[in-house]
Write a structure and sequence with these properties.
Blueprint (H helix, E strand, L loop, with lengths): L34 H12 L8 E2 L6 E5 L5 E6 L12 H14 L14 H14 L3 E5 L2 H12 L5 E5 L4 H10 L3 E4 L4 H14 L5 E6 L11 H10 L3 E5 L13 H5 L8 E5 L9 E5 L2 H10 L1 H4 L6 H15 L1 H23 L11 E7 L1 H14 L1 E2 L1 E3 L9 E6 L6 H26 L11
Parallel strand pairs: 3-12, 5-6, 5-7, 7-8, 8-9
Antiparallel strand pairs: 1-2, 2-3, 4-10, 9-10, 11-14, 13-14
């Protein structure tokens, strides 16, 4: 099939390079020195190879229209939105939002340390605490703020952080802001974590250590041994913090994710999560075991103290989402989601693709070479698939992939269409890349 994408102009440099090349720009002028990034980005944009910063035109539906930042709009099956249980458009969620706006308006109008809380946010804190079997909960305006804030709020410059090398950026940024004593262990390698803890405690028994991991890693769809990590922390007088952003609510018989599946409800020192993947809203939380920890975070975790509290409509809709997740409908939605996940994974493998990790709402499709991935991505929108290309810095260079994000209301036909489109786009892109990389023909004829 000959399309505009297959014949599009490919600007020099648009298939090479990465954002790593512009991470540390040189020059005395802070504003002038960043222009190199824009020139590279715009070369990709004009070639149709910049798939970021898109905007949906009807919300995160399973089929939707999305407009890129050049203004071009395409409609297709949507595997790019994070709405795992399809709650963003659930009638009860929307009605809760309408009712809350009618009563409270739309704005919290204050920090949670002052008068930004509402009855909905206080109720939500208790709802999350009961769900996770944790005593106390602190709400944050975003998941990023929660991940950054729990680390920066508790860790001081003389303390230590031992972190999984693939931990989310909000966790890495919080660690960098808190202390220079940051040690990364290879992904999910408990014994390497142990070696760091032993090495630190051999030299420092006076300062704190926070161990940071995730219950489900969003780029590799795998999980650590949470019990082993918590026991390790007890052995070395360290504190475990687990990010549950991607599995809470949508995995497990009761929706408690891998912490529940591993029998660790109420056992982990600190649990941090986000509402933006499963609960139909922005926002985040930190769950802890004592009122003392909660109060300290409220006044020393700056991304909480110096941000406006969750709006009443956010707190109310997340609370309604927890109600749905905890009842029989939630169980049914999780079953539908897992059916779709297994269908997509098996269909991709049958089509010759390799996927990462274990079954979850995140199905990452391995590509590898950034240039090939970009050429595939250019084709997808006009062929009817909205999917996210992931490349550096979200993943290492040379490990580009497509992150397919599954929803409970995807249909079997949606999945079949997505796999077929991805296969066709991959094959056509591989041919184009080979042509682009082929040496130019040299005219060897001798002039008469």
């Amino acid at each position: 099939m000959l399309t505009a994408a297959t014949t599009a102009y490919t600007a020099p440099g648009s298939l090479g390079g990465s954002m790593r090349d512009f991470r540390v720009p040189k020059g005395a002028d802070l504003l002038k020195r960043i222009e190199g990034f824009y020139a590279w980005q715009n070369a990709r944009r004009t070639s149709g190879l910049w798939p970021f910063s898109r905007a949906t035109e009807g919300g995160p539906q399973h089929v939707t229209s999305a407009r890129d930042d050049r203004g071009a709009s395409n409609r297709g099956v949507n595997f790019a939105s994070q709405d795992y249980l399809s709650l963003s458009n659930h009638p009860a969620i929307k009605q809760t939002a309408v009712d809350t706006i009618t009563e409270y308006g739309v704005h919290s109008a204050g920090s949670p340390a002052l008068v930004g809380n509402t009855t909905h946010s206080i109720t939500l804190e208790r709802r999350i605490g009961d769900f996770l079997k944790m005593e106390e909960v602190v709400l944050y305006p975003t998941g990023f703020a929660a991940g950054f804030g729990v680390i920066k709020g508790l860790v001081r410059t003389s303390d230590h952080i031992v972190m999984d090398a693939l931990a989310h950026t909000c966790l890495q940024e919080g660690a960098s802001a808190a202390t220079k004593n940051v040690y990364l262990f290879r992904h999910n390698q408990v014994e390497e974590c142990r070696r760091w803890l032993a090495q630190i405690r051999a030299k420092d028994t006076e300062n704190g250590i926070m161990v940071v991991t995730e219950s489900l890693f969003s780029m590799d769809s795998d999980t650590p041994d949470i019990r082993a990590m918590q026991e390790l922390c007890r052995e070395f007088n360290a504190t475990l913090m687990v990010d549950v952003a991607h599995d809470l609510g949508n995995l497990g018989e009761d929706g408690t994710g891998f912490i529940g599946a591993q029998g660790m409800l109420g056992e982990v020192d600190l649990v941090m999560g986000s509402f933006s993947k499963t609960f139909g809203s922005n926002g985040g939380f930190v769950a802890c075991k004592t009122r003392a920890i909660k109060e300290y975070l409220k006044f020393f975790s700056t991304s909480n103290t110096f941000s406006n509290a969750l709006s009443p409509v956010q707190a109310a809709t997340v609370g309604k989402a927890f109600d749905i997740i905890a009842d029989e409908e939630g169980k049914s939605l999780r079953q539908a989601l897992m059916t779709n996940v297994l269908n997509l994974r098996s269909s991709l493998e049958t089509a010759g693709f390799e996927v990462y990790g274990d079954p979850s709402a995140i199905v990452c499709v391995k590509v590898g070479q950034e240039s090939l991935a970009r050429l595939i991505s250019r084709r997808l929108p006009e062929m009817g698939l909205i999917a996210n290309l992931v490349e550096y810095p979200a993943v290492p260079k040379g490990q580009a992939r497509f992150r397919m994000q599954v929803m409970s209301n995807h249909t079997p036909q949606n999945i079949a269409d997505a796999v077929s489109i991805l296969r066709q786009a991959h094959d056509a892109a591989a041919v184009e890349l080979a042509q682009l990389n082929a040496p130019a023909e040299v005219d060897t004829r001798v002039a008469a």
